[in-house]
Amino acid sequence: MEKEEFRKRAHELVDWMADYLIQKENYPVTPQIQPRAIFDQIPDSAPEKGESFDAILEDFKEIIVPGMTHWQHPAFFGYFPANNSEPSILAEMLMSTLGAQCMSWLTSPAATELEERVCDWIRDAKGIDKTWKGCIHDTASTATLSALLAAREKATNYQINENGFQGNEKFRVYSSSHVHSSIDKALKIAGIGLNNLVRIPVDENFSMISEELEKAILEDLENGFHPLCVVSALGTTSSTAVDPIDKISQITQKYKIWHHIDAAFAGTALILPEFQELIKGHELADSYVFNPHKWMFTNFDCTIMYLKEPRYLVNTFSMTPEYLKTKLDEEVNNYRDWGIPLGRRFRALKLWFVVRSYGLQGLREKLRIHLLLAQKAKSWIKDEDKLEILAPVNFNTICFRYFSEGLSLEKENQINEAWMNQVNATGEAFFSHTKLNGKYVIRWVIGQTDVTEKHIQKAWSLLLEQLQQTLSKQ
Ligand SMILES: *Cc1c(COP(=O)(O)O)cnc(C)c1O
After folding, report:
1. Angle between the N-to-C axes of helices 140-155 and 181-189, in degrees from 0 to 180, rounded to the nearest 10
2. Using CA positions, which residue lies closest to atom 1 of ligand 1?
3. CA atoms within 13 A of residue 277's CA, in its CB half-sphere
4. Could you tell me if 288 and 129 are in contact, meaning their C-beta atoms sit under 8 angstroms apart?
5. Average pLDDT over residues 414-437
6. In what order do the strands lie in the sheet with 387-389?
7. Which DSSP state fits 242?
8. Structural contact between residues 171 and 228, judged by C-beta atoms closer than 8 angstroms
9. For the stretch 258-283, what's the b/e string if a residue is b when 16 or more beta carbons lie within 10 angstroms of its beta carbon?
10. Which atom of ligand 1 is nearest to the CA of 180?
C-alpha cells in the first residue's frame, strides 16, 4: 500500500471507528450464528495475488463484524468487562504505527521510562507501598505465573532454574476455594503440580478463612511439604469476594511464604480512597497484579504487576549473567528481564493516554457511577420476592438467581440457566453465570465504559420479562 493510499484509508477507517463507537449499542451484544458460519465464508486458501483494500474492508464489514461479540456494548454484563476508551484506542493506533519492540531500555528508552513512571503513578493512586515497583505484562495469568516462578526460585536459591527439579521439592501453594483458573494453570506450568494447590475453605462471604490457611500450612509442614506461596484474591472471579489480605500477610510472614495478591478485576477500585483499606497489610506481601484492561478503560491487553523486591523476578528471568551486566543496566530497567517473553509491546503508552485524558478524578468519577448503578440494580433485585442475591456486592458485580420454596435445587438451577440463555438469545444484553454453593447464579457486572442508568433499566425489564416467559414454559 502506498503511503498516500494509507493516509486515505486511515481517514476512512477512523470514520468507521467513530461511527462504531457511537452506534455500538445498536448491534446485538452476541452474534446469533451457528458454529462454522464464519469459517465457511472464508476461502480455503490464501490469495496468491494481493487484493484491493475495498474488497478486504467489505468482507470485514460483511463477514467479521456480524460474527463479533460486542464487548464494548453497554449491555455487555458478562464475565468481567475488557473495556476500552477513546484515548486508549488512539494510543493503540500510535503504538502500531511506531511498531516498536520494547524489550530493553536501548530498544526504546521512552517506552521503558514511561512504563516506570506510569506504573509509579498508578501505584501511588492506589495506595500501594511507595517502595514497590511495577511492570506491565500481557495478562494477569502471565503475571501470576511469573510471581510463582520467582517464589520458586527465591525459595531454592535459583537451583531449579539451574539444575531442574530434583524430585524432592514437595511445594505447596494455597488459595481460596474460589481461586481463578489461572492459578491452577500456573501450578501446572511451574512444575509444581495441580495436586499441590491447597484450596482453603471460605466463609459465608466467600472470603478465605485465614485460620484454615494456617492450619493447612502447619499440617503440610508436619507432613514434610514446603509451603511456597499463598495467592490471595482481591475480588474473586465468581463473586468478587475479598480475602483478608492483612491476616494472610501475617501468616506468610510468620512462615516465610511468598504472598501474591490477585486483584485482576477489582484492583482498579483501589484508586478510590475508600477501598484502600482492603489492601492493608499488602506491604508485607510480595507481589500484586491487576488488569487495567478490565475496568480501567485501557484496551486489552494491559496488566500491571507490582513487586516489593523486583530482584527476585529479575534474577529468575534475566539471561544476563551478573558479570556481563553493564553500568547502564544498573541505571535503567530492561523489562525483558521482568517476565517471560523477550519481546514487549509499548503498552505504557495507552495507559498514559488514559490516565492523562481522564485524570485520576475522571477515572474515580467513572468508577463511582458504576458502583452506584450496581447498588441500584441490587436494590431492584432485592425488592423482587422471587429473586435473591447470593454474595455481598463488594464492587459492581451482583450474583443473583430465581428461587422458589417448592422446587428442588436441580430444578431451580435449570430454570436460572434457561432464563439467562433466553435473555442472552435476545441479543439485547449479555450475562454470564457462576455457581455458589451449588446454586446456579447469574452475574451482573456493571463496568462498561459507556453504561448508564438507561442501559441497566432496560436490562432489568428484559430480565423480568424473560423470567415470566421462562416460568410459563415450565
Ligand atoms: C480475569 C481474572 C484473571 C485472569 O486475567 P487474564 O488477564 O485474562 O489472565 C485472574 N484472576 C482474576 C481474579 C480474574 O478476575
Report:
1. 50
2. 264
3. 1
4. no
5. 97
6. 387-389, 397-402, 439-445, 432-436
7. B
8. yes
9. bbbbbbbbbbbbbbbeebbebbebbe
10. 11
Going from the Cα of 182 to the center of ligand 1, the distance in angstroms, rounded, reads 7
pLDDT score for 319:
80
Task: Please give the pLDDT value at position 129.
Answer: 98
pLDDT at 74 over 70: yes
Rounded to the nearest whole angstrom, what is the distance from the C-alpha of residue 55 to the centroid of ligand 1?
Answer: 37
Sign, CA torsion 155/133/144/240:
positive
Tell me the three cell numbers of residue 287: 507481589
**% the chain with pLDDT above 90:** 93
Which atom number of ligand 1 is nearest to the Cα of residue 237? Answer: 15
DSSP 3-state assignment of 203?
coil
What is d(CA 59, CA 65) in angstroms, rounded to the nearest whole number?
Answer: 9
Ligand 1 centroid to residue 133 C-alpha, Å: 21
**Helices and strands, counts by H and E, the chain:** 15, 11
pLDDT of residue 335: 92
Number of CB atoms found within 10 A of residue 425's CB: 12
Residue 333 alpha carbon to ligand 1 centre in Å: 26
> What is the rounded CA–CA span in Å between residue 370 and residue 177?
28
Between the CA of 413 and the centroid of ligand 1 the distance, in Å, is 26
Weakest mean pLDDT among 278-282, 324-328, 365-369: 324-328
Pick left, alpha or beta for residue 158 (phi over 0 → left; psi -120 to 50 → alpha; otherwise beta).
left
- Residue 199 CB neighbours (<10 A): 16
Domains and CATH numbers, the chain: 100-345 (3.40.640.10)
User: At a CB cut-off of 8 Å and minimum separation 6, what does 196 contact?
Assistant: 170, 171, 172, 173, 187, 225
Q: Residue 392: helix, strand or coil by DSSP?
A: coil
The answer to whether the beta carbons of residues 466 and 422 sit under 8 Å apart is: yes
Contact 52, 405 (CB under 8 A): no
Task: Tell me, in angstroms, the distance from the centre of ligand 1 to residue 472's CA.
Answer: 38
Q: Which atom of ligand 1 is nearest to the CA of 236?
A: 13
* Contact of 393 with 374, CB cutoff 8 Å: yes
Sign of CA dihedral 4, 5, 6, 7: positive
C-alpha cell at 375: 447498588
Length of the chain: 474
Ligand 1, CB cutoff 6 Å, lining residues: 80, 139-141, 180, 182, 233, 236-237, 262, 264-265, 291, 303
Closest ligand 1 atom to residue 293 Cα is 7
Q: Average pLDDT of the chain? A: 96
